[in-house]
Amino acid sequence: MIDQPRSKEPSDFYIGLDIGGTKCAVVLGDRNFKIYEKVFFETKVSRGPALIIDEFKGHVHKLVDKYGREKLVKIGISCGGPLDSKKGLIKSPPNLPGWDAIPIVDILEKEFRVDVAIQNDANACALAEWMMGAGVGTENMVFLTFGTGMGAGLILNGKIYSGTNDLGGEVGHLRLADDGPVGFGKAGSFEGFCSGGGIAKLAKTTVEHKLKNEIAVGFCPTVEGIDALTAKSVFTAAHKGDATALEIVRISAYYLGRALAILIDTLNPECIVIGSIYARNEALLRPLVYEVLEKEAIPEALGVCRILPAKLGDKIGDYAALGVAMQ
Prior knowledge:
Layout: E1 2-3, E2 13-19, E3 23-29, E4 35-42, H1 49-67, E5 72-79, E6 83-84, E7 89-90, H2 104-112, E8 115-120, H3 121-132, E9 141-144, E10 152-156, E11 159-161, E12 182-183, E13 186-187, H4 190-193, H5 196-212, H6 231-239, H7 243-267, E14 271-274, H8 276-280, H9 282-296, H10 299-303, E15 306-309, H11 316-326
Parallel strand pairs: 2-5, 5-8, 9-14, 14-15
Antiparallel strand pairs: 1-4, 2-3, 3-4, 6-7, 9-10, 10-11, 12-13
């Protein structure tokens, strides 16, 4: 448990639960996103959902007893999909085997006698960036994860939009080319070109082709190094001016620009906030992306849309589930 300074206890508070495949977190904060306490624990998925939920319950009970049970307003949950936010069900996420139609919202509402809401992690991060990050003050915002995978959280007309059955924002599945790195189970997809795993695959095929044709690759001079290539190693080399790394980055940026143009023309947002890889490498990616956007997007729609790096950085996980509680 990490205790925050308690110079003044909240008059009321919210609790956010982050359910991950490796670790879980419980966060207690107020309406202004001031965090008073955080608790982390290992998920240990093999023990099954019942024991993991019991551990969540135990931590929440300790916190509400400490801060005043009557002050708890609402609980929010951030969890990887698929899920049903309307029925409050977790529906077998890949990182949570055995979580088959778990009625997590109903379980926690009965336990704590307050309203409970759940959103997938991309939507939860979108809410956090919209409420206190790069998207503050907008009515229409798109949040893109651009991390291990590629997903979107959509804020439309001042509300989270999850779609008819919580598949709104699954932009990683968009096919942008007939062929290319596989992401979201589809070759040439948005996730294939614009995710950590996809960029690593693109790097491996690009470097392998060059080395087979006896073309020197500065940041990976031998075939023995191919398996160790990652998005991070590509961007590190690109920042140093490596020609092959820059070629890989340009390909990813091109398809990022293509996808952003689709989102801009379809949704007409005020801003698109992009996390993780883009946020860390904006200086490289932004000019390349705008070259594409200026050719592909409707000028009037592009003119009112800002492309911004996510503002909350590594802290976004602290605020995401709280944002769900406050929606």
